[in-house]
Input
Amino acid sequence: MADSATNKDGADPPLDSQPPGDPQSEPQSAEAPTDRRGFVLWTVLAVIAGGIVSMGPVAAGLITFLDPLFRRKSAGGGEGEGPGEWMRITTFDALPETGEPVRFPVLADKTDAWNRTADQPVGAIYLRKIGKQVLALNAICPHAGCFVNYSEAENVLLCPCHNSAFHADGQPQQHNADHSDHDDGEATFGGKTMYNGNANPSPRPMDVLEVDDDKLNNSGEVWVRFVNYYPAKHEQEPKP
Amino acid sequence: MKALLAWLDDRTGYEHFLKDALYERVPFGARWRYVTGSMLVFAFVTQMVTGAFLWMAYSPSSQTAWESVYYIQYEMTGGWLLRGIHHFTAQAMMVVLGLHLLQVMVDGAYRAPREFNYWLGLILMQLVLALGLTGYLLPWDQKGYWATNVATTLMTLVPFVGKEIQALALGGPDYGHHTLTRFFALHAGVLPFLMLVFLGLHIALFRKHGLHALKREGRPDDTFFPKQVALDAIASVLMLLIVLLCVVHWDVVGLFTGTLSSEHLGAELGAPADASEPYGAARPEWYFLFLFQLLKYFDGSTPLTSEFIGAIVLPGIIFGVMFMAPLIARVRGGHAFNVAFLLVLLVGAGALTGIALYEDSQNKQYQHDVAEAHESAERVVELVQRSNKTEEGEGDPMLIPQVGALSLLRNDPGVQGPKLFGRHCASCHNYAGPNKSEPRFVITQDPEANLLAEGETEADRTIKLDAEGNPIYADTPTAPNLYGFASRDWIRGILNPKQIVEVEYPIVKSFDTTLNESHPAKFIREIRSPYFGNTAHKDGRMVDWVKDHLTDLPTRADKEDAKLTQDDIEDIVIALSAQAKLPSQREADAADAEKITNGVALLKSTCATHCHKFGDEGQTGLAPDLTGYGSFEWMMGFVSNPSHERFYRSENDRMPAFADNLEDPADNQVTWSDLGLIVDWLRGDYYQKSAKSPTFAHSSEEANAAVLLALNSPTGRKVIGEEISAGAAIRLQAESLFRTRCSQCHSHVDKFGAGIAAAKPSGPNLYGFASRDWLTGLLEPDRVAGPEYFGNTAHFEGDMASFVNDSFAEPEEETKTMRELVIIALSAEAKLPTQTEADEKAIANGDLEKGIEAFTYSFDGGACSDCHTLGDIQDGSDGPDLTGYGSAKWIAEMISNPNAEKYYGENNDRMPIFHFSKEYADAHPLKQPLLTKPEVALLSVWLRGVADEDLAEAAGEALDEISAED
Output
């Protein structure tokens, strides 16, 4: 600082040269310690003490920050049956005979950090009546996690985000290089569709959820084991 | 002054710093192209300042984030401006950042010896993008929620630790409070701090190396101050100006005339985030659109186009190349490559953005979703701002309940009604009015078509034709159009011989012109049947009756002695529609009181003779009860169980019972609260922006109560506009007395909840007072301390309650019998008109006598006679004297003065003295009693359940009885 204080003319040094106030010139004015053993000792001490001082708070903070990793729920649904929880969604009679998918919200107790609220919508599923069976699809798009819409006009499940399109059975519409014949199989009477010309970016079919056939046949109730899977993966990986 | 500055300089050396800062050399003169850096600094400072103020009003949690942003945007003075500046400056920053990068790259300012500064710049760019991403989520609206959702989903693509990274970012596996707290801490704390650090380093290194300038011969050097400073300042002012124009959405006229519409006030706030509500309009901010578009191409069809490549690897490579730019520049042609690379990148990103925008502009569904998103955003604000409008203007808004703004949308019939109707009703019912802008549901039907053979495509599909060459359709029955159900127009139509069976099948042309003429899509038809035309009822008695009796009716003027005229039918229409109490007909109903009275009489003599029940006339079981027709209660009952005997019973044509399980409501197809939303929507009974006062939807408790009432209780239903009998008028008088004088504390409701409910129940429910049922409840440990009896009084832990608990907690058979007998005897004291038969039987079989003996029986908790007097049994007198318990005289005396020694004495808990004794009244001539003597008499007989027609006489007798003592 003493150096630079004298340099008051305001004219700057030429480009890319070292300015006079450069700190590199500083140590020369301080004398290096002569006692070598003392120097090493004090250095070690300074590093250790400094490390403790700086790492202590950081470690404490980090542990709390990493809390979500320690807190992952066991992904079991009881009795080692696999992930998810059985939930009653609706009754068999409520589903249309035509077999078109109908969306139902899934209500469950929701824990959100310090809040626990009963009967909150935690997701949605599509249900289809197929004969005496019910097909249940998680409404979350397996591509990037948006909500898939059902388009009645084209009988297709269509994601509004990146145009993933699925047949009513959850299978992805085929994507061809020339994108011309997406309109196969179940996409009936559709005519032109807006996803025409786009590839289908979904890595896997929509997630099919397990339906309790016993309850369906005995009491006419639709019970579904509700699981959310990580989107964007080829294989189903249940969320905790 | 000079001395002071010199002293300051001596102590701080500020002059040096100042000069250093201001007189930095600008080789070859100041230029416009150097302004971007300063603009970015200015923008960043703006963000810090506006951000700090936003911070003071923002609350990060899933129940308060949207709510606090709403408050900033709509309620706080200038809040929209503050938010708007913060929002649009962020976007301006992205643009200037791009220009800055371009300038550095083109001018070669990234090359040695400035590599480090270039890298610092890249880090700063990442920080700015991160600030944009984190800030987008904070309002917690649908837009930010779903867009950010995609971004965090992509995090899981990172190999090995993807899920962990996502969990750390979200603060858990799903979005919630901790996602907001973390994003907010990043956005307002960590990232700005890093920005400051790296910006400091960036500027320090910039100073160290000096400004990198392109040679321009013959131009003299400048110093930074004043010319370059002036240019920077002008550029920043221009940027601020553009930002401000963006904030008002370029609506300068509106700004100066003071007519800025709410959409033009700063940044948009969408509807509150809802994990269960699909959001088709989900898009990231425009500066991320190119990434969004890019992802559409990485569809996983080949390993090279997997999502992982598109979202992680490709951006990684691009950033890697940019990072290496100073090193690449060392080789020959490297600089040219770098510039070209950046240009290609910018043009590519621009093209992708353009494609994304173009695709959206062509996407009808997207346009629709965006419009819908705007609508629900507007709707939620409407609901929050519900207020009592007075002539002076708006009242205070109702604002947001503590559970959050989402509950407003979820419980709004205007929003949920159409959705639920679509899910549960629209497969049979149309909902189609003349107004195209309202929600419409019309059933359509495809013709039968051939199945496709191998190799055939959609275009080859053809329809099956009948002998005459017409397409064949399946026979699909549909139910009435529910638009305007129970309104005058609707009822007018069903009483019209033609309309009641009308059915049409208009063909709706396919929008696809490429299909050939025989394609099935060309023959999709609508089914329009306003009433019974397409149901089994079309051959039913109602249709027959309408055809037989209502065809070619004369008018009243034409034929005065006609049994039924057009005018009569109009009165019936008006009267029946009035039963629904539709909000849209409030004025019309009030204006037509006379016609309603006439119509009600006609309904009774015309419709309630053979088929329908209406009020006290007619019977149920043959056709729907018309009492309360179209009201919330009636519709809730009907939809819950149309086969109930009050409605269609066996005549019901395939309408499902949506919620007929009263014991276990969880087993119903649809919850009662959802049905309530549908019914409220159908009835138009929900808040409209133009309404003068806030309307609240029926709560789920009210919906439950309505169903119970509709399917159970025969009482509590009244015909609107009925001429009332003299007896009923007296009953209404008694009810009104009870409502004004007693219902502060007491209820008078039957077991289905019909009757007069206390505002805040604190005394026993007096319905059926002194009856056997009532006493049975009183002597139940579970119930005596419940809200029906002493639950909310001081008596709930008094002697009576302890007696019941001690005696009947686990009663033995003998105890039960004795209790039974006491109840019989005690109830007989009341001589209730509703119980005459049972009392006579008790006298005949000796139960009464045994009951009086049982009064002295020692239960575990003691004998009744320990506290109460009953006739000759006069052992105890702490509790009320039970001689003549429940008689008109007893009740009248109790009401008049519960403090009397004979009644509660000093044990009385807050029950007022309703009528003074003669001595008291003489001593205090100015005091008015709460009830007059005749009023006390009327109340006491009404409480005994005396029939309407006997009320007057019984009240007179009671009055004589209590007056005799004066």
Notes: The mean pLDDT of chain B is 88. The CA atoms of residues 149 and 175 of chain B lie 8 Å apart. Chain B touches chain A through 82 residues (CB under 8 Å). The radius of gyration of chain B is 40 Å.
